[in-house]
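User: Okay, second chain of the day. Same drill as before: sequence in, structure tokens out.
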Amino acid sequence: MGRALDLARRGAALAHPNPIVGAVLVRGGRVLGEGFHIYDLRDHAEIVALREAGPKARDAALYVSLEPCCSTGRTGPCTKAIIAAGIKNVYAPMKDPNPKVAGRGFARLKRAGIRVHLVEDFTQQAEEANEGFAKWIRTALPFVTLKTALTLDGQISSRAGSTTWITSKASLEEVQRLRHQADALLTGIGTVLADDPRLSERTGLPRRRKLLRAIVDSRLRMPLRSKLVKSAQADVIVFTTQRTDSPKARALGRAGVEIVRVPAKRGHVDLHAVMRELGRRDILNVLLEAGAELNGAALQAGIVDKMILFYAPKIMGTGGVPMARVPARWFAESPALKNISLKSCGADFVVQGYFHDVYRNNRTRRKN
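Assistant: Same drill. Structure tokens below.
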């Protein structure tokens, strides 16, 4: 099962908008076939493994990181192929969060006489691997991870409008891995004006779609000479409350930047409208890399599902910028992180936790 999950992770940025899935066929302690899903190659992981095994698959055990599908979409149902191949046992750590499957695949296999085993020791890993797909398939909204680097006293910069390098090289490399797993990066115009970032992914790993770089810019202050605009190749989008036919909007459009007007809420971009638009574009995972203002707005709006905090073992002292600007009255009602984990990353340590459990969200997605 560990190997199946490792294979599944190789589909990061290649399987979306489908879930990432890995499969391994085993008989007598020997691996007969294995595979993972790549969207553009169509075949699901189980089919890739079955094809590699060929006739040897009969009476084998299938280890797969997600419940096999039982419906017809771009491909036929994997359950049909598994039954036809003569598989005896299927081991999986979780049900498919897609309401069209959600246990029906397991039931179909059982009716055919195949023994189905839920491997709960790997359930948490499997759910984390597809948390973006789970939320999107049920709600049509992307899964939002707020990532930030900060000091032990909770500050992200020495002063407003400045750039302060806080964390280690190892943490910067880990952030690139997170960017590779994301479909979109989201930041605010304040970060663009202060840092002039490119917001690129530099892992060198293959992607099916370009990483979408999204900016919240209510007053449309995006500089035409910024690195984002200069590097735009149909992969930069600005969400604003301003008219899309203004001279500035037209100039940005000519430079290859897409301008999307969304409703205003208390004078700022409505972040819920931004999430709906990103979900409509089949964006499953959003990595929020922003400053105190947008971090605070996202937390208050309740759009953040997960937080990853990179703590450097340093003290900034007075006068620094906090991780998020929120009114003091918000603290009394602010949600607490759950399922918290802690790990080291070079000289730093990383705290990860969840606000929302997407696998217990029963809302139905508007389309398949």
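The first strand starts at residue 22 and ends at 27.

User: Thanks, on to the next one.
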